[in-house]
Amino acid sequence: MQKNQFGKNGKKVGYLVHLDPIQDNSIELYLESQVVSAILEETTDLKVAEYLSYKNNPSAAMDFMEGLKKRQIDTIIVHDIEIFNRSIVDLFIQNGFHFIVVEIDEFNSKYRVFQIESNGKIDTSMVYLKRTNAQWHRLKTKYKKAISRNRIVAKNLNNICKQLGM
């Protein structure tokens, strides 16, 4: 992957994750976002400036967008393509944001990065076409280990939160 594929060096981006509506997976998603951010910075020179995890709160999304616009950021990183099936994405598209997807395979052995241009609308077939055409890259050992450790940490922290009734 070429570092200049996604714009100028050191470009800042936002990071968006959608929380599970049934269970609290915010710890796991936050830890995963840290690994994805490190991969992004190393491979594309993109740096995450702001992070938002949300369930279904359009006002939180609007605040996030305002913060990004103040910093002149128009690109958002996501690591789950299922977010494009959520209505909140339309809000970001209407406000002129573009998306970069960083997908790690289920075995934590490889990743791919691809850009989704929003020309007023993003349809599912376009996302899957871009996804299919994106090239897989081997994941470095340090990232594999970080993902595995983070999943264990998240599981343990979630268990502690359940025991404490949080």
Give an account of the 3D structure.
By secondary structure, the chain is an alpha/beta fold. It is built from 5 helices and 6 strands; from the N terminus they run βαβαβαββαβα. The chain has a 6-stranded mixed β-sheet with strand order 2-1-3-4-5-6, with helices on both faces. Helix 1 (26-44) packs antiparallel against helix 5 (141-163). The protein is globular. 20% of the residues are buried.
Sum this structure up briefly:
The chain is of the alpha/beta class and 166 residues long.
Briefly note the structural class of the backbone: alpha/beta
Question: Helices and strands, in N-to-C order?
Answer: EHEHEHEEHEH
DSSP strand content? 15-25%
Q: Compute the average pLDDT.
A: 84
- DSSP summary: helix tally: 5
Stretches with pLDDT under 50, minimum 5 residues? none
Profile the largest sheet.
Answer: 6 strands, mixed
Total strands: the figure is: 6
Distance between the termini: 42 Å
What integer value in Å does the Rg equal?
16 Å
Shape: globular
In which order are the strands of the major sheet placed? Answer: 2-1-3-4-5-6
Helix content: 40-55%
Topology:
Elements: E1 12-18, H1 26-44, E2 47-54, H2 58-70, E3 75-78, H3 88-94, E4 98-104, E5 110-116, H4 124-133, E6 137-138, H5 141-163
Parallel strand pairs: 1-2, 1-3, 3-4
Antiparallel strand pairs: 4-5, 5-6
Task: Name some characteristics of this structure.
166 residues; alpha/beta; six-stranded mixed beta sheet; 6 strands
